[in-house]
Design brief:
This is 50S ribosomal protein L35. It is built from six helices and three strands. It has 126 residues and is mainly alpha-helical. It has two domains: 52 residues, no CATH class; 54 residues, Factor Xa Inhibitor, CATH 4.10.410.60.
């Protein structure tokens, strides 16, 4: 009888089978059809595996972008600090004042701040 049941009925029965205790009191002519189904469904059944996959997907741990985490520092107020570009090579021709200014850290641009905060899983502070 289980093969002739609709997928919705199988889903309902699998949810009932996963409960610790339940009361099943059907009314009408379909009472005999439900009583002939073997409960519980095995965890390897197609209905249960799709339910388990959806449950695991909902509980996945959020991961920050490791590339962004290596390039930015989050302050206690929620701002993002970054290094200035242009200090990797060809330093001989740059003035000492320019090199000193490149050693400092600066804040991220406000236009891209929301993008970087979402990559780092930082909630913007108000």
């Amino acid at each position: 009888k289980k093969d002739s049941m609709s997928p919705l009925a199988l889903l309902f029965l699998s949810l009932l089978a996963s409960c610790q205790a339940f009361v099943l009191a059907p009314a009408g002519p379909s009472a005999s059809a439900i009583s002939q189904v073997a409960l519980p469904l095995s965890p390897a059944s197609p209905v249960m595996t799709s339910i388990n996959k959806k449950a695991k997907a909902a509980c996945r741990k959020a991961k920050s972008s490791r590339a962004a985490a290596k390039r930015f520092k989050v302050t206690s107020t929620g701002k993002l600090l970054r290094h200035y570009a242009g200090k990797a090579h060809l330093l001989r021709k740059k003035r000492p004042q320019k090199l000193a200014s490149l050693r400092r850290t600066g804040q991220c641009d406000k236009a891209e701040l929301a993008t970087y905060q979402s990559l780092l899983l930082v909630k913007p502070k108000k």
